[in-house]
């Protein structure tokens, strides 16, 4: 019925295949406007330094995936054969500033050129030491670095001359809209259990239809679901949110339940999927917030509290969740055919909730009230025109009386659809 939430990016067709199958990877030339636009003064200067010192420098991972999908990458990570020490010497010799050396242990140096930061990471292999901590070992072998990455579509490198280095058929998978782990799924997941949720998120980003998973992949996820229990709530929530506002979110959330992952990520067990699927359909195309899409599986305030305890959601997300579970059934379109919005605007005007209007907008998305949603988006809270000061001027002195009169006037004003002005409202008292 509805189109896709987001257009799934078409894989770029302008790639020129220059030659194929050199050993077990092939190289291609990518020259798109998104790629060209990366070549700022900063990047050109960076490339020159690596060239001068004869170290290779390539774009790595997510940015390559995005470029091949015709999408402008948000952040671009670089990979190199130079070690962090070698980079430091190189940058120091060229008088280039390096910032926050936090990543250095894992091989990342951040250099600042022409007011732009560049994160460059040494090729590495993750070596497991005690099964919990990964120790890194630097390498100059590009394939080894590709092997430790999560998904084939995230395992490619792009040379600055536009050559694509693809060791695991990532480009083919992207064209076929397949999401696959690199090599053995279970091993990749055990290296970082968050990858289970990354798999779902990228499935939403890449796959054309719900339900086209390799059975082996789903088995590996099911077998390793418990590992999510050891992943920090913040990291889980970041991934889960991206999944919820992407394509196929209802299908993916259902899979989370089918694969028995819910308990490890703060979601209530045994909930009905029906309401969730309906809400997903209703919110299609209305840019719902992640919490709005998730809330149908939250049965009441306790479920929101539990979710917060596990995932450390923001205050704003939590209050929205509480608001939706509280009002999804009792705050509904009124009888007045000519002003269906009235129940909602009255609620907003009387509400002490911060951001009441934006919460009600999410409620209307949840309820699928598209017409009212459009109307409320254009509406702005009218100001009640009478103040205590006005009443004192009319000779009302008792604080209590001022309070009750103001309340009565507010009711008259609301009944008038907020149309009556100050004089009209004040004239209703003198008559009574
Ligand atoms: N758990 C993870 C996280 C990241 N990566 C690798 O590191 C790259 C960069 O990670 P990140 O920036 O977190 O994700 P992106 O894939 O770039 O996605 P996004 O567009 O959301 O940044 C990924 O492409 C992937 O190769 C990985 O293998 N396993
Ligand atoms: Mg990234």
Automatic annotation (TrEMBL):
Keywords: ATP-binding, Cytoplasm, Magnesium, Metal-binding, Mitochondrion, Nucleotide-binding, Nucleotidyltransferase, Nucleus, RNA-binding, Transferase, Transit peptide, tRNA processing. The keyword Membrane does not apply. Gene3D superfamilies: Beta Polymerase, domain 2, cca-adding enzyme, domain 2. Belongs to the tRNA nucleotidyltransferase/poly(A) polymerase family. It comes from Hemibagrus guttatus. One of its GO terms (biological process) is tRNA 3'-terminal CCA addition. The keyword Coiled coil does not apply. The lineage of its organism: Eukaryota, Metazoa, Chordata, Craniata, Vertebrata. Its cofactor is Mg(2+). This is CCA tRNA nucleotidyltransferase 1, mitochondrial.
């Amino acid at each position: 019925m509805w189109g896709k939430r987001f257009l799934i990016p078409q894989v770029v067709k302008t790639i020129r295949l220059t030659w194929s199958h050199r050993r077990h990877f092939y190289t291609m030339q990518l020259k798109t406007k998104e790629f060209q636009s990366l070549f700022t003064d900063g990047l050109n200067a960076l490339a020159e330094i690596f060239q001068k010192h004869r170290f290779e420098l390539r774009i790595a991972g997510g940015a390559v995936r995005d470029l091949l999908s015709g999408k402008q990458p948000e952040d671009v990570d670089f990979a190199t054969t130079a070690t962090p020490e070698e980079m430091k010497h190189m940058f120091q010799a060229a008088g280039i500033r390096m910032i926050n050396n936090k990543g250095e242990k894992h091989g990342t140096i951040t250099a600042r050129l022409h007011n732009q930061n560049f994160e460059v990471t040494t090729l590495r292999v993750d070596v497991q030491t005690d099964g919990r901590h990964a120790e890194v070992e630097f390498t100059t072998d590009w394939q080894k670095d590709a092997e430790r990455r999560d998904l084939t579509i995230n395992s490619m490198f792009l040379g600055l001359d536009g050559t694509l280095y693809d060791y695991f058929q990532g480009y083919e998978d992207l064209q076929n809209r397949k999401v696959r782990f690199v090599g053995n799924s279970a091993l990749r997941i055990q290296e970082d259990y968050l990858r289970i949720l990354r798999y779902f998120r990228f499935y939403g980003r890449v796959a054309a239809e719900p339900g086209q998973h390799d059975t082996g992949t789903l088995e590996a996820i099911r077998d390793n679901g418990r590992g999510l229990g050891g992943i920090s709530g913040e990291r889980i929530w970041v991934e889960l949110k991206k999944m919820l506002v992407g394509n196929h979110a209802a299908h993916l959330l259902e899979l989370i339940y089918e694969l028995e992952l819910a308990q490890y990520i703060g979601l209530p067990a045994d909930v009905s999927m029906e309401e969730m699927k309906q809400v997903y359909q209703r919110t299609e195309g209305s840019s719902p917030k992640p919490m709005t899409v998730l809330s149908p599986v939250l049965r009441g305030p306790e479920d929101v509290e539990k979710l917060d305890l596990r995932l450390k959601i923001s205050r704003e997300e939590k209050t929205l969740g509480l608001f939706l579970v509280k009002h999804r059934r009792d705050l509904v379109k009124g009888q007045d055919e000519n002003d269906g919005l009235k129940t909602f605007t009255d609620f907003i005007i009387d509400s002490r909730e911060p951001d009441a209007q934006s919460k009600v907008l999410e409620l209307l998305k949840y309820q699928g009230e598209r017409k009212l949603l459009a109307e409320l988006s254009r509406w702005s809270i009218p100001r009640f025109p009478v103040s205590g000061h006005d009443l004192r001027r009319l000779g009302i002195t008792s604080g209590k009386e001022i309070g009750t009169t103001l309340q009565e006037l507010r009711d008259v004003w609301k009944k008038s659809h907020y149309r009556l002005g100050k004089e009209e409202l004040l004239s209703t008292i003198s008559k009574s």
